[in-house]
């Protein structure tokens, strides 16, 4: 169970826009994939949540673009849980091309009752599957991904 999840992706032609670089929507797609794959690796994926009639939904996303990416770039996408409360969690992301940090982001996720669509207190067994990794953690420092988004998200911990 990795507290800091990562996966590699290669920029394909469908990710390129009219300006000949990666379209902004792709960064969000990569962030969402990282979050979903990380949760799945911890036994909290979409199927497990739906079986329980509970699910994580995104409340807000923040993305800061630091450098453009291009066709055939090899990227490493990282994600980790920065904080977690009763029904909300702040997840951070970083995308690197080699040693260059090209994007950082964050998502505030809310745990909801699937039937009512209302926030639900996070069950203890789900809460315990996620290790909180603060931005100052030495593992993030070693990866070179400690730059937070310029606009600091303020995740409520209710």
Describe, in plain words, how this protein is organized in 3D.
This protein has 158 residues and is α+β, with helices and mostly antiparallel strands. The chain has one domain (5-143): Hotdog Thioesterase (Thiol Ester Dehydrase, Chain A). The protein is 22% helix and 34% strand. The chain contains four helices and five strands; from the N terminus they run βααββββαα. The chain has helices at 24-41, 46-51, 124-127, 138-143; strands at residues 5-10, 54-65, 74-84, 88-97, 100-113. A five-stranded antiparallel beta sheet has the order 1-3-4-5-2. β3 (74-84) and β4 (88-97) form a beta hairpin. The longest helix has 18 residues, at 24-41. It starts with a strand and ends in a 15-residue tail after the last helix. The model has no long low-confidence stretch (mean pLDDT 93).
Walk me through the topology.
Layout: E1 5-10, H1 24-41, H2 46-51, E2 54-65, E3 74-84, E4 88-97, E5 100-113, H3 124-127, H4 138-143
Antiparallel strand pairs: 1-3, 2-5, 3-4, 4-5
Describe what is shown at a glance.
By secondary structure, this protein is α+β, with helices and mostly antiparallel strands. The protein has 4 helices and 5 strands; from the N terminus they run E-H-H-E-E-E-E-H-H.
* Average pLDDT metric: 93
Summed up, the helix count is: 4
- Could you give the order of the helices and strands? EHHEEEEHH
Biggest sheet: strands side by side, in what order?
Answer: 1-3-4-5-2
Q: Major sheet: size, sense and barrel closure?
A: 5 strands, antiparallel
Give the name of the CATH architecture: Roll
Q: Which parts are unreliable, with pLDDT below 50 for 5 consecutive residues or more?
A: none
User: What is the number of independent domains?
Assistant: 1
- The named CATH superfamily: Hotdog Thioesterase
- Beta content comes to 25-35%
* CATH topology description: Thiol Ester Dehydrase, Chain A
Q: Please compute the radius of gyration using only Cα atoms.
A: 16 Å
Count of β-strands: 5
